[in-house]
Give the backbone structure.
Amino acid sequence: MANTVRLAGIRIVTTEERKRLLKDLLEKKKSGGLKTKDRLAIPPQPMPEQDPAARRGNVHEVARGYTPEQARLEAMRCLQCKNTPCIEGCPVRIRIRDFVGAIAEGNYAEALRIIKENSLLPAVCGRVCPQEVQCQEKCTVGLSLKDVSKAVSIGRLERFVADRASEVCGEGILPLRDEGAPPSQPSAARRQDAGETQGRDGLATGTVPEVAPPTGMKVAIIGSGPGGIVAAADTRRAGHEVTVFEAFHKPGGVMVYGIPEFRLPKAIVQKEIETLTKMGVRIVTNFIVGRTRTIEQLMKEDGYDAVYIGVGAGLPSFMDIEGESLVGVYSANEYLTRANLMKAYEFGAGADTPIARSRRVAVVGGGNVAMDSARTAVRLGAEKVYLIYRRTEQEMPARVEEVHHAKQEGVEFHLLQSPKRIIGDDKGLVTAVECLRYELGEPDASGRRRPVAIPGSEFQIEVDTVIIAIGNLANPLIRQTTPGLEFNKWGNIVVDENCRTSMEGVYAGGDIVLGAATVILAMGQGRIAAAAINDYLAKKNEGRSR
Ligand code: FAD
């Protein structure tokens, strides 16, 4: 039965049983009798999920989120280590032990306040951060149980509190304090720092952060991905006039055009964008910096005092093999943009963008982008979806959870294989992909074992669609139109530790600096850049008023 867990021989299936266990544990804790061994014996709480067969036919979120009982039980598994190894694993150094402790107490408002000290997008990060190779990899519980999958589910807990404070999940505003939570409350001043005010029924809800009085300085943010959103929020908070320029017709970056709805509901990103707008940030879409206006024009003619470049890494890589220009070959970027941003799954029922109605799909690659493409193809009705990857599952960069979900949904994994050419018919339509088999050799520069092709091992798989998901590079547009800006050999912008570029007043962060990376790293750089921009503009203002 789904969600059935065992503790010391007791089957725990229902909410009532979880409540009873929680009550017992809380009583034990109150009496000072809750020991490490008791915490380690609490069963890891499984994430409630949509049934795999049902979700093949819809785009709704797969993971449904913890119930309060699950969240508190999961939080009680935390050993509250003095040396907090989990924080070492967090790229933005969230005070994990403390927020998890607050959840265990049932004080979700305090947990959210702690998370928001370091992360502006907890509902996003709780869902998409690769916690299993960051905070959770270092968790003492996972290490003690010799299984990283049994570490405290920090990401799920982060998502839980973020969703409690949000109306986007259709549940209305949920209490941010649970029954039995002790009366400790953060002061009003601390709440305001975290951008919270008292909401309905005296409950704290996430609202609009305060903005300092106008400074008369103008900041341009180029790109509205996670880095751009954080940089816009933090520079606006300092009182600057902030405009976000976005090439697409909708803001949100990869969170909107790349990561599918079934992993990250778009309403969550939309809410963050609305918060920016409420703070007074101007968002200009369909504006391609480098085409509509150059950075030089923005600064010299349009009066922007500082610029943050957060344009991501949106240029798909191809394999450079025969047949890649046949009809039916997509880059993952195009496939996912059609499906997610343009809602091609509703083509003919409200959406204008078509997408191939494929029967047999080959997805090439082993990262999150490949998993997202394969799982999207399943939802678009493909009968067979093959994931072709030239190493083994162990070397796959995709999150373990995504691999697990893809398999549950029927994606067939073809490991140690890679396309040699794509074959088409006389109309130029894809009919098959010819692959070579591989074996693993010595480790390469990435530390992973190098895939070595086995000569003469060619074989064909009949397909009508091929999606190439082997990586993304920086789009060269900014480079071509911004003389004086320094780039490295891969086309990424060179910055110092404060995200300052080679041009005065110009800062950069996220994938355009790091190469294709992660949401949390982009956010972290957006925050560093915003702090540096605020310093730079404060000095510039002083200079002006002297
Ligand atoms: P991006 O999110 O890349 O956004 C950049 C924005 O800039 C875009 O909206 C683009 O349209 C705009 N832009 C580009 N050029 C211009 C221009 N010239 N003028 C104006 N605007 C411009 N990370 C995770 O942590 N977990 C995951 O599970 C995960 N899954 C992923 C799945 C997919 C399919 C993809 C593609 C990426 C995934 N990532 C994941 C990576 C993560 O999304 C990125 O690292 C992150 O979004 C980078 O943020 P960013 O701020 O640099 O910009």
Notes: The longest strand covers residues 430-443.
